Amino acid sequence: MFVRNAWYCAGWDYHVSQGRNALLARKIAGERVVLYRKPDGGLVCMEDRCCHRQAALSLGRKEGDCLRCMYHGIKFGPDGACVEIPGQTKIPHKARVRTFPVVEKNNWIWVWMGEPEQADESLICFAVGYDDPDWNIKTSEMHVDANYRLEVANLADLSHLAWVHQNTLGAGDPATVGAFTTIQDETTMLERGINTRYWIRNVPANAFLQHLFPPEARFDLHFDITMTVPCNWILHFRAFTAGSRTEGESDGELVADTYTCQTICPNDEHSVEYYFSWGASRTTDLPGLSDMLRETVEQAFLEDASVLEAQHARVMEKPQHPTIDIIHDAGAGKMFWVLDRLLQAEAKAEEEAALAGAGRSARAGAPAC
Amino acid sequence: MFVRNAWYCAGWDYHVSQGRNALLARKIAGERVVLYRKPDGGLVCMEDRCCHRQAALSLGRKEGDCLRCMYHGIKFGPDGACVEIPGQTKIPHKARVRTFPVVEKNNWIWVWMGEPEQADESLICFAVGYDDPDWNIKTSEMHVDANYRLEVANLADLSHLAWVHQNTLGAGDPATVGAFTTIQDETTMLERGINTRYWIRNVPANAFLQHLFPPEARFDLHFDITMTVPCNWILHFRAFTAGSRTEGESDGELVADTYTCQTICPNDEHSVEYYFSWGASRTTDLPGLSDMLRETVEQAFLEDASVLEAQHARVMEKPQHPTIDIIHDAGAGKMFWVLDRLLQAEAKAEEEAALAGAGRSARAGAPAC
Amino acid sequence: MFVRNAWYCAGWDYHVSQGRNALLARKIAGERVVLYRKPDGGLVCMEDRCCHRQAALSLGRKEGDCLRCMYHGIKFGPDGACVEIPGQTKIPHKARVRTFPVVEKNNWIWVWMGEPEQADESLICFAVGYDDPDWNIKTSEMHVDANYRLEVANLADLSHLAWVHQNTLGAGDPATVGAFTTIQDETTMLERGINTRYWIRNVPANAFLQHLFPPEARFDLHFDITMTVPCNWILHFRAFTAGSRTEGESDGELVADTYTCQTICPNDEHSVEYYFSWGASRTTDLPGLSDMLRETVEQAFLEDASVLEAQHARVMEKPQHPTIDIIHDAGAGKMFWVLDRLLQAEAKAEEEAALAGAGRSARAGAPAC
Lengths: 369, 369, 369
Ligand code: FES
Ligand code: FES
Ligand code: FES
Fold this sequence. Notes:
Three copies of one chain form a homotrimer.
Chain A: E1 7-12, E2 24-28, E3 31-37, E4 43-47, E5 61-63, E6 66-68, E7 75-76, E8 82-84, E9 102-105, E10 108-112, E11 135-144, H1 148-155, H2 174-181, E12 186-190, E13 193-203, E14 219-228, E15 232-241, E16 254-268, E17 271-281, H3 289-317, H4 330-363
Antiparallel strand pairs in A: 1-10, 2-3, 3-4, 5-6, 6-7, 7-8, 9-10, 11-17, 12-13, 13-14, 14-15, 15-16, 16-17
Helix pairs in contact in A: 1-4
Bound molecules: FE2/S2 (inorganic) cluster (FES) (3 copies).
One FE2/S2 (inorganic) cluster (FES) binds at residues 50, 52-53, 55, 69, 71-74 of chain C.
């Protein structure tokens, strides 16, 4: 079950070039789509399924602004309407492929999977792209064979850094484990998600940073996370040398000011694509530092993938197995509350539309089935 | 759903040798069968499933005319009747494996999957085998992961040559595309299929032939296709230097007189085996020419396979997705009309047999269930 | 369908070491479990599924006697009870993972998949382990993609040695085939299985032994097999030079006195793990002899695997396909009688427990659903 009226990330902007055969096939929230660029650079996203006999349009041919199905040669405009059927002159009214609103923002490609007229660009999440001159952002991606709600729960709670990521994002020492698992955060509900902020003070560096500092070095770490549905997760992460304050902004020296922008696109109920980045501000960057951040987050997501894929297999086998809840489930609970409220609203709207349609049919004397 | 009372091709005759362990396992129209040759060369086709505990008879041992199951050693005659049960003398009446009528013709092996008494050899399609002295026929085969009806539709309309096969069987130039997609054919309905004939005149050579002629060379091409159910497709293809006539037989020079014989055997609803050939008449053959034809058709079928496998995945996902029809669907429509008429007749016969059986049981006082 | 109240073999004792990360994940009778050793060497077996969010405990961390889930850090004692939830002090009563009785005996690890209070160690089958000083036992293992009942039937009848194993355990010559398929055995029903004993006299050596003796050598072979549910199979196999007696103990020379101990653990309905050994007594052993026995049984089980996997595929396709029975099915019939009686008893006990529970709920006024 996926929210339809939402922007889903289809990848990085460089995944769709102006190449002769640059047709990007994706599966987004259960729907097969194909993306391509028109000669003016604008993106088109349409269902990857010809309206004639369901051939893959992603095996087709770009012709100017149009896409030609290379099975029997039907040509479609960027609005999905058929503009040519080789060998016949009449074009049936229904000869049309569904298209999806598509927007590029901060180097990500966003596709609206719901009603086109409801597509609201203000719902696209804030992010820092790799072309932002103030940041040295490095990008990557990963495929994970797990249901997307498991990913939401994973990202909505960072206590797992102490365990899953003990050798990368965590710190491996017992004191830090305590600091990571007894966080005092400030959480704000957003229209479509949550914002969470907290400090972890006077701790050793995260494992991936430790070799850059003397062992006795201590830091104040600040996390500012905005998570929105379907599964966008933007973290402003800052590390200061440990200061004297126990609340409010650290008075230590800012040694790393970084953004990591992450979005997860469900292919279907069994796998996701993960598009993510990490990088430092130009003022705190050093040669190789942002590359190290990218390597670190790749390593961490491989750690997550092994946990989540095993978890997914178990949940599939026993979806009704009893579970207990713990304190760290709160964030995930809020995200699921938002997701489920949207899902319910869409189910209700669909039901009402069906009823209205039946009413019209009944009034017109048409059979309701 | 497969027509039962039809001949299905189980492969080329050389797929079943006299070898000690030459037991060919196939799946035909959903049934597992095993084929072997008796010492006199005659073929046997039986269900690949021992009547004892369903072991694979294709893992068995040939013994003269017989086949021994190598699990517990039960031996079956070429008629499927059990002739030996090691360790016991009594052979139960039901100890028998189903056999299927099998015929070799034109180097193809044909199996009748329906009622043996209805097996009618005159229904085996005409073809030109590789042992025909008048033709230099080269053979090949391919596995495709697609439903067999998609293959029927593919072969029943050659307009796709202009698109799928633009670099092989098609010609790649816009003029030829037009010629390939606005064909005036003569179609005749046959008892179990269709015959289609047409000329494409004054066009460049097909892509696979172009390097053999000067660029300005033009040709008259003649197609004569007989397609029969389940999925046999025999094309007599001739290329003449472009002549002056605009109707009737070309008055150009016959430069290539060729036969390509193709048959597709459904394994089950999700894949097929393709057995095919192409070759020139001895009078128009040149060293290497028929090998080139075989290479060309192999290349073309790889092009089809990529289209059909993607299409199959999409149809499986959304079998009810709305589609539109175009002019080029006419040939497939005729083939499906034949297929579906046979399917309906078989469903009706089965129903009547069930009713008759129930009637007899009722009269005999036996329980009808 | 699996018997719950039975000991299933989880592998050889060396499959679970004292290693830092030695967490053995298995699937036994459809349940995922994880096994590890406590510092004192004792084994723990628990469900491989955290009670929080179903993460794999086999991806966790051993901490003394405990196992920590490395997703959110919940720690479980060897009894399955939660002993720590990082970040919170209250531990819910239901925070507990199922554990299974586990016993080591004769170098095999045995897990009881049913009610812990019914775990009866006297039901663990007799075997000869590799650490028995009187025998030179060599061990091995294999995965087979077949339902476990097919394995039971395979092991319960040795007439298949003449066919499946003609080049290994059988002898390949017609006389021996007769001897192997017309056995006069003595069978005794056991509480949970059968014991079968028989002589095969004055036959050539089994194929795997023939190169060690002159071609004219003849032997008396004695088989003493104890088979118990779920699928334990212990064979005391002895070879004597052919003696003069036609009944009772052979008066030939004992040239090989061997034990092969085999147990098959169903992972689920579609595959099994096979743990097995073979070896000679110290008094009849020779350098390399027991290694040869192990190689032979490995080779033979590869022969079985190819038969059983093909059979499994066919039975899955047509579970209701009619079959005939033969004389050699008797042993399997007895094993299935035992298995099915236990399955019925468990189904009945479960039903009664459900009824009793419903009764209690009704009396307490609680909703019965
Ligand atoms: S399937 Fe696209 S044109 Fe036929
Ligand atoms: S399964 Fe064929 S003889 Fe037993
Ligand atoms: S899933 Fe095990 S601690 Fe959360």
